[in-house]
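Input record (one chain):
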Amino acid sequence: MIVLYKVDEMYADELTALFEEEKIKVQYFSSLNSLLDQVMNPMIIVTPAIYKKELEHIPLPIIPIMITSWDIQEYVYHSKKTSYKVIGTQDEIDWLKRSDSAFSFVLLKDTPSIAIDDSTAYIAPIWLKKELVHIPIQNLNFVTPGKAVLINIVQIAASMLTFTEEVIRDRYQVDAILDSDHDGIVTVDKDGIIKLVNQHAKRILGLDNHSIGQNITSYIPDSDMLRVLKTGVVEMGDLATVHGRKLVINRYPIKIGEKVIGAVSNFKEITDIQKAELKLRRRLHENGLETVYSLEDIVGRSSIIHATQKLALKYAATDSTVLITGESGTGKELFAQGIHASSRRAYGPFVGINCSALSENLLESELFGYVEGTFTGALKGGKQGLFELAHGGTLFLDEIGEIPQRIQTLLLRVIQEKTVRRVGGDKIIPVDVRIIAATNRELELEIKEQRFRADLYYRLNVLALDIPPLRERLDDIPDIVEMFMTEFNKERDSMILEVEEGVYRKLKEYQWPGNIRELRNVVERMVVLEEGSVLKADNPFIPFMEEREVARQAGLQENEQHLIVRALEKFEHNRVLAARSLGIDRTTLWRKMKKYNL
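The corresponding structure, as predicted from the sequence alone:
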């Protein structure tokens, strides 16, 4: 995996595209903490040279991005100044001096004390912009790395990737044993051959000193490690009795990219505390209060979906309320579950409710609970509401824009006071719940129409996550189709083994008003009714757009682009005011501006 750390968006997209041409996965990180959360994954870090210092303690390969004398000469060629000075870090200046000593140089640390000369143009790499923003230098110009630099970086990273992944894999296997000396640990390769085993595992499983190099089935004939090698799925909290000892066992696949190259099993004898924890986890699972999906389950290769995943991962590191927006069928609940699963609340409950599916009174009793005797048919002893059930975890409020205003007022009070009172009761119950809400409505427009409370909106919209529609991530269609095809293949006697290229071409020509949900239904019909092993382009269930609809969609997009341009011009490119005038939120405006290259 390639990581772009604090890479400016001016050239990040171009760099990503070059990696994707090489079929290399790219992820973005803008904070050290979020990067450290992923440091156990094999990766090569690409970052501007100025950030090398803060990453030096990370035991991973780092490729610095630097501008070259050619990049500077390109700027000088188009400039009218006669005198130039280049600002940079010591590493950057040393690099430039080796290739071209014709320029004068200024160290970044010396910029606050330089004597400003109006006749001199100052040149600096684009990543120093934040460092120099408060320094009053006239004629300050920023240079981005040219394509030749980016191509060279991609070539270097690609050549290092395989070797780096193998070295890091072996190191992490050893580290896992050293760092988990109170657990029994066994590591096997893709063929089930034991590669590493510690003393606790030998004692508990009865392994001898000659077990390394032997197949795990020689000691455990029906080892569940074989299943993990086949499925690549993590198995947590399995209970087993071995030689009279009750164990809790976790199994993890070892992967390079999506390929399973081995598995690790760690286990320990169950203490009273562990028994209580496992009982709680089992109860959550039985009640459907666990997540099914993680952010890693979100399929796609497009830069827009990668950016959305990256933002969701950032949000997972906080406890703030999240408002997820997007059209119906884009996967808002999947992102909500992913945020919960990546957060510190992952071991707490995840409780979801569709607010549009219930009447006002029923929604109130579901959210806040009720006391015994509140209404006819009320359960004896009353009932916990979803806020209570979600205590210590996450409450997902889907279709939040459909909530009646009276319930909006009650919901606002719970968010502000972090307490809940059951319907018909007077007892105040404290709750520790993170709220993730979702809607396919433009809530700012709903506020204007006085259908949604502004104060509740601002409480919910602390962190905004806009999920792009499928028509804006058409490059993801092959990956999504393959995922669904694998799922539906399991239900058939024969399997679809190949997809004609024409299938993807036709699917990409369609506008997908129903988004991922509609695509899933289409793939299911195609797979279930296909008689052979090849999904053909003449399949009658592939949706298509009539020429009239194509023309209409093109006209709508042209009109939308015109309205956005007018709004930006009117408000002098103030995105907040422009979005407000268009009745959309800032995230949606940003996405549409990117779509139309505005």
